[in-house]
Design goal:
The chain is an alpha/beta fold and 293 residues long. 37% of the residues lie in helices and 19% in strands. It is globular. The mean pLDDT is 97.
């Protein structure tokens, strides 16, 4: 087990669910406030998507990212910012004509997906390491796209968090680690329990962990009802953890969380109850090799 466990809070996510869950932060101010509150509750890192403030639908708008980042930085919070590069990968095929896109597709070139990283230079950003069937379509991330986004991340000076949704993603990540496409210091994040991806089980975590180079920093999270069991599982196996409304809205069966901070508070309690302690942002920076703020 780690001496200190890094807890990430993913405060809003990129799924079109704001119409179902009114507590989800959607405006830049709401997202920034959720991040600040999560940091106060014990999160060392905030993973951030943005949304259209009028509709709550997922967005890739640079100005929304800029507003979120500026509000957080101006607040005095020292939480580590982790911006997503995931949006722009969603493909829904047309079923009647050749080579057509159906409603819901949002496939963008890598330059669009990394633009806000180059502009805002977060300490960390995510890098999806493969494609995955998702809902009515798929998230498309082929090696050429991943390599292009990785170059942008390197140019920005951000640390990649490699998102692993399935076993093939891990194989590609290890290949890119070996050839230098992604740096040796990259964080591995195991995203578990997503339909048609790797299951949220101890066996899956053990397999992923066993394939990593020695001393690799890794984390795991589960979605939905597996969120809190995976907090305990990842901690006990030596990994770091993540919670937040991107992954789950419930504190317990039938009990909705009102804020991301409540999810963080429960995760902190789980870690402490089984003998651990969460890292502060300063301690997390030291563990990850990031420059002190």
């Amino acid at each position: 087990m780690n001496e200190k466990t890094i807890l990430t809070c993913a405060v809003t996510g990129g799924d079109d669910v704001a119409h179902k869950f009114k507590q989800l932060p959607i405006t830049p101010k709401q997202i920034a406030q959720a991040v600040i509150e999560a940091g106060t509750a014990g999160a060392a890192i905030a993973h951030i998507h943005v949304r259209h403030p009028d509709t709550g639908k997922p967005s890739m708008e640079l100005e929304y990212y800029r507003q979120v980042v500026e509000i957080i930085r101006d607040s005095g919070s020292d939480i580590i910012l982790n911006l997503t590069t995931g949006p722009g990968a969603r493909f829904v095929p047309g079923l009647e004509e050749t080579n057509t896109f159906a409603a819901g597709s949002n496939v963008r070139p890598p330059s669009d997906r990394v633009r806000h990283i180059l502009d805002l230079k977060p300490e960390i950003c995510t890098l999806d390491m493969g494609s995955l069937n998702f809902g009515s379509g798929a998230l498309i991330n082929v090696p050429a796209q991943i390599e292009a986004i990785a170059r942008g991340i390197q140019q920005a000076g951000s640390l990649p968090e490699l998102e692993i949704f399935d076993a093939g993603h891990l194989a590609l990540a290890l290949k890119m680690l070996k050839d230098g496409t992604v740096p040796a210091a990259s964080i591995f994040q195991f995203a578990l329990g997503i339909p048609w991806g790797a299951p949220a089980t101890a066996e899956m975590v053990a397999y992923f962990k066993s394939a990593l180079p020695r001393d690799t920093i890794w984390a795991a999270f589960g979605v939905g009802r597996s969120e809190f069991p995976m907090v305990a599982q990842s901690f006990l196996m030596g990994g770091h953890v993540r919670v937040g409304m991107e992954d789950n809205f419930y504190l317990g069966k039938g009990v909705l969380a009102d804020t991301n901070a409540q999810l963080v508070d429960k995760a902190v309690g789980i870690i402490r109850s089984i003998g651990g302690e969460v890292a502060t942002s300063t301690e997390a920076r030291a563990l990850l090799g990031l420059s002190a703020q």
